[in-house]
Amino acid sequence: MRTVLVTGGTGTTGRRVATFLRARGVAVRTASRHPVAGDDQHVIFDWADPQTFAGAVEGVDRVFLVAPLSDPDPAAAVGGFLDAAVAAGTRRVALLSSSAVTDAPSGLGALPPLVRDRVPEVAVLRPSWFMQNFVGSHPVAAGIRERGEIVTATGRGRVAFIDPGDIAAVAGHLLLGASIPDGELILTGPQALSYDEAAAMIGEVTGTSVRHTSITAEELTTAIEAGGVPHDYARMLAGMDAEIAAGSEERITTTVRDITGEEPRSFRDFLLDAHRARSAHPAGTVA
């Protein structure tokens, strides 16, 4: 192994992947659109600028790939990047997808087939929804802080929320050389919870009142769009909530344990740690 490139290297999952690999002595190059002070192994990388691809992939054997989230059909950009990466010697890619995304001819669903077609060894990670959505700057977290309310279109549907640290551990093991299992790599936490149950657990841990309000997918589309999100993208996000209401995310898998040898973090443990962190640093970003 030469160098692992981590795209989205300053993001929620990417920075955890970089930390995991560096702790094990792996040479890591992180990439994002903005410079990172004090990180001499960080490169400027922009999906909209193919001229940044060559410098990012030079000497890279493996890649943690986070596609451009703002692009509703990112296949063209990702395809050009993969061509540059494979030409530079990349042999394995761990693609961050989602349990809510299925293979398709276009959109985000087009990426797994595209990567499999271009790269010799591919692991497609399909995690459930992030526990970190309940903290920091995410709209769900903002609603909890500002109104004591979580608004979704999920009804009573359950989600086996996952900690991105567990996603990073799976990606790290696969990038280090673990054999890639056959079949879907669906990553979940150990328990499926409705948003009503999640709100109640947040209240128990923090001592504050938090409620869940379920609205229709159409109402949620309008609310998301009012925040400046394009209509088609807002409708897609609301549609994911509607799928949860129909039971799409209620499954629990053993993938994290099977690959890492460790049990995934529970939602309650995540909340307890987040609450302790906020209590210790009340001016910080942890909700």
TrEMBL record:
Residues 8-106 form the NAD(P)-binding domain. It comes from the Bacteria. This is NAD(P)H-binding protein.
